[in-house]
Design brief:
Chain lengths: 160, 771
């Protein structure tokens, strides 16, 4: 069947089967940031946004995406790079293979939660596995990014 | 200024080395660029999949592929009849490999559940999957050898074949299911133990663990303009892959080119050519591009996990707690094939016993046996992890018997700078800050206040536990790294390395070293990943070798290049080379003050020039200086359920000069998290018929960010005189302390000693019940 949806703010269509998962459709459409790490919804590497909410694209049937809006890292590259600089500052991207899914979920978290504390951050991102870093550097990056963003928002307010 | 000139000053005065610079590939990685194997594979690649044996041990009597071949889109179905009958090893090691030549690409005998029985290639995943179901294989099912304690001299042989071959004298004998055997000793261990006041005599058991890197095994292949087999693969060992594929396909090595893109983690898994042979065979047979992407399930059932080991330790000491002798017997399970079998086991003794420098005698004996489970391989720590769990646990048991604080017992016995380490190939610990590491780790955790435990008053008790570790820095007398640097127009440098960045950051830290040596900025240097056609030879990234071995090759190459730049500058300035100095930006005639810039030299050598302005040097070390570390775990145990939760982990590492503090720190944190998984959860579980139950992340549980507690890392640096800028390795040692430290913390909290990993809640619970 043919589905139509909005991918990174552009209308796209794809021919999919009844059992095609969104992950495969997105990679075929050129969104190579979307990685597959486990096929069983355990690792978080394939995290994308569907209608603005984080979803694991390995477990979303493509047929159900018809008429919806999907965002991958290709669609939020500037914001990803902005946070990514903090991640790289800690050396906490390491192999980088889990970074896109992780960063997508971090950006989703920061849209959803206001000033999350350490426990809330860990809870929100629990489904994003990383085998390289031991998670500490990722946490440091998030905290530094949040404090920087907080500062810049304050600056804007002051200027306003 | 050369690296040699900075030796007295340690890490001080360094400009680029010892700085936490971001990785050179960071921007691409954090924005999800298409830089990994499967992102780069051409869209028209044939999809390759492997039909796997459902039996642990069987002979293929017949394979009927007629119906499968009729599936539209199927390009080829290959069986053992299509493969050369010439055995090879998939272990990525320097030739002649210690691992036996015991593999065929496809064999008539299948040796574990998941062993390759046929290869299917087709134009789509759907077609290949449909064809796989239509292949009919008749097996003669044979009795497997599943208990590694009964494998040696078992009448059932895993490798009865006559063309099995061992290239090195490692004590292997396929007619005894023996992959390796060796005895090494110093002093009269039996006499020393007989005269000891206390002898701890215990058996410890570590299980197979999966590296579980986020990117599974994957490779794509194609023929190039010259009809050569091009291989793009997620590998730690591109040059070894070239040899392995030439051996496997029985073709000349010059027919193979291997390219390494970015890699999504390896941890040793990709030091074995797990996936390369299958698409390579398809492309070689069909002439068409082909790719294989392992599923997570395949990566968990047919890969290269840590060797399961059982270790019998006898540890003797006097009443005051002086450790006088260590006797270790290790039985290692290499599974169906011998990849890394003969070598991993050696580290279980050679990198655990030397932690106790004052012992009068040691003995270390091992057997490595074949069984009908998936082949083991290289995993971070490479046998040292297993041996250190056993020896460090025995030391903690000794402390309990003596009624002594385990940190105090270690302070009395640990190896110190300047000591000769008989069990470490007789090498001297020229750089060792282990004493400072332990002292600092104790301060960080608050050992004196927290040891042995604190009842939290809510049914939970917190305990602290300690362990020490060492590793090596490359394989002495074997590992070879080479580097080439050329000067380009405008004077920028190309740094060409054969070392394999797999996320570890070697492209970055080697560039840092080059920038330091050449007195330039990192932006003046471009670094190229590995292409076996053009990169200088490097054995690859394993055995904690890159920083130390390839790092020294960078230092040497830069030294040579600086001389050449001076010579060329002097020539252009028309003066003797003795009169000039190169400060990184320009060559100056010290007598006249006249100078020529690096930029001008770079441009001048591109016009009317008869000698390339480049240098290439190799480095191999006669020694392998060990990094050292101390790790202290604080855990909280639920007295009702036995559940162990990580609270805090303090780790202090002596890796010599820290080349890049943020990368070294993250490596350490990551290694500790993996070690926590090994200690508490991770286990490859087989049923009675040899089927692997741990075949997804739902069964094989790796730690999430909720499971690791807080991990805190500091460095206490010694200065390694033979290393680049005083550096030693960091990559592997960091996984070695969690298992024994957490075991000790459980022991100190609830008095339960667990000698078999993982230390699950059940084991702790039943241990508490038995008390």
């Amino acid at each position: 069947m043919e589905i139509q949806f909005i991918l990174n703010q552009k209308q796209v269509s794809a021919e999919v089967g009844a059992d095609t998962v969104l992950l495969d459709v997105l990679r075929n459409l050129g969104c190579k940031s979307v990685k597959c790490g486990c096929e069983t919804t355990n690792c978080g590497l394939c995290t994308v946004w569907v209608d603005g909410k984080s979803r694991l694209s390995c477990s979303v049937l493509a047929a159900g995406i018809d008429g919806h809006e999907v965002t991958t890292m290709e669609g939020v590259e500037k914001e990803a790079a902005e946070f990514g600089e903090f991640l790289a500052g800690e050396g906490a991207e390491q192999c980088g293979f889990c970074s896109p899914g992780f960063i997508m979920n971090v950006l989703a978290m920061l849209r959803e939660l206001k000033n999350p504390d350490i426990e809330e951050i860990k809870e929100y991102l629990a489904g994003n596995l990383c085998r390289c870093t031991g998670y500490m550097g990722q946490l440091r990056a998030i905290q530094k990014y949040m404090s920087e963003k907080g500062c810049s928002q304050t600056d804007k307010e002051v200027q306003a | 200024m050369s690296a040699q000139m900075k030796k007295d000053g340690g890490a001080s005065g360094l400009r680029v080395v010892n700085q936490a610079v971001p990785k050179v590939d960071a921007q691409a990685l954090v924005t999800g660029k298409a830089v990994y194997t499967n992102d780069l594979a051409p869209a028209d690649c044939l999809i390759v999949k492997v039909v796997r044996s459902p039996h642990a041990h069987a002979l293929i009597k017949d394979i009927n592929t007629v119906r499968a071949e009729a599936v539209p889109g199927i390009e080829c179905i290959l069986t053992y009849k299509d493969c050369p009958d010439k055995r090879f090893t998939m272990a990525g090691q320097t030739y002649p490999e210690p691992s036996p030549y015991d593999r065929l690409i496809l064999d008539q005998r299948v040796r574990f559940v998941g062993d390759a029985a046929a290869i299917v290639a087709g134009t789509s995943e759907e077609a290949v999957k449909r064809a796989m179901k239509l292949i009919k294989i008749k097996y003669e099912v044979l009795e497997p050898v599943l208990d590694f304690r009964k494998a040696k001299d078992n009448p059932i042989l895993v490798h009865p074949e006559e063309n099995w071959k061992s290239l090195c004298p490692v004590g292997a004998d396929n007619k005894r299911n023996l992959c390796a055997h060796e005895t090494s000793e110093c002093g009269d261990i039996d006499a020393v133990l007989a005269s000891c006041d206390y002898v701890i005599d215990r058996v410890y058991h570590t299980k197979a663990n999966q590296q579980a890197m986020m990117e599974t095994f994957r490779t794509y292949t194609y023929l190039d303009t010259y009809g050569r087999l091009n291989v793009v693969s997620s590998t730690q060992v591109p040059f070894h892959i070239r040899r392995i594929l030439a051996n496997a396909l029985d073709i000349p090595k010059h027919k193979v080119r291997v390219v390494k893109p970015r890699i999504g983690g390896g941890f040793g898994a990709k030091q074995t050519s797990v996936s390369e042979v299958y698409p390579a065979l398809v492309t070689w047979k069909t002439g068409k591009p082909a790719k294989i992407i392992y599923t997570r399930e395949e990566s968990l059932i047919a890969s290269s996990p840590r060797h399961e080991m059982e270790m019998h330790v006898r540890l003797g000491a006097d009443k005051e707690g002086h450790i006088r002798g260590i006797d270790l017997y290790t039985l290692s399970n290499t599974g169906a094939f011998g990849e890394h079998g003969p070598t991993t086991v050696g580290l279980s003794g050679h990198k655990s016993i030397p932690l106790y420098g004052k012992a009068e005698a040691f003995r270390f004996v091992y057997d490595v046996v074949y069984t009908n489970v998936m082949s083991a391989g290289a995993y971070r720590g490479y046998g040292a992890t297993q041996g250190i769990f056993a020896v460090e646990s025995a030391v903690n048991e000794l402390a309990q018997v003596l009624g002594m604080d385990p940190t105090v017992l270690r302070e009395k016995n640990m190896v110190r700078e300047g000591q000769v380490m008989p069990a470490y190939y007789g090498e001297t610990a020229k750089s060792c800050a282990l004493d400072r590491c332990l002292a600092r780790a104790k301060e960080m955790i608050g050992w004196d206040e927290k040891y042995p435990c604190r009842d939290m008053g809510n049914g939970k008790v917190r305990g602290v536990g300690v362990a020490m570790a060492m590793q090596g820095s490359g394989i002495s007398g074997v590992d070879t790294g080479s580097v080439a640097i050329k000067v380009n127009d405008d004077g920028f440098y190309s740094l060409m390395i054969g070392a394999t960045d797999m996320g570890t950051g070697c492209d970055t830290i080697l560039s840092q070293m080059a920038a330091e040596c050449l007195d330039c900025e990192m932006d003046d240097i471009i670094v190229s990943g590995v292409d076996t056609d053009t990169s200088p030879y490097d054995c690859g990234s394993y055995a904690s070798s890159t920083t130390y071995v390839t790092g020294m090759a960078v230092v040497k190459t830069c030294g040579t290049l600086r001389e050449k730049i001076c010579e060329r500058g002097a020539e252009y300035l028309g003066c003797p080379v003795e009169d000039v100095e190169f400060d990184g930006q320009q060559v100056t005639n010290l007598k006249t003050g006249e100078s020529i810039s690096r930029k001008d030299i770079g441009n001048k050598v591109m016009c009317s020039n008869n000698e390339a302005l480049s240098a290439s040097e190799a480095f191999s070390s006669p020694v392998s200086p060990p990094p050292f570390m101390a790790g202290i775990a604080e855990v909280e145990i639920d007295k009702e359920t036995g559940v162990v939760e990580m609270v805090d982990y303090a780790a202090v590492v002596d890796c010599g000069t820290v080349v890049n503090p943020s990368l070294a720190r993250v490596q350490t944190e990551g290694g500790i998290a993996q070690g926590i998984g090994m200690a508490l959860y991770e286990d490859v579980v087989y049923n009675a018929k040899g089927k692997n139950y741990s075949n997804s992340f739902m069964q094989y549980k790796i730690p999430s960010r909720l499971d690791v507690g807080t991990i805190r890392v500091e460095f206490e640096s010694s200065y390694e005189p033979t290393g680049p800028f005083g550096a030693k390795s960091i990559g592997e040692i960091v996984i070695n302390t969690p298992s024994p430290a957490i075991s000790n913390a459980i022991q100190n909290a609830v008095g339960v000693i667990i000698r078999e990993l993982p230390m699950t809640a059940e084991k702790v619970y039943w241990g508490m019940q038995e008390k």
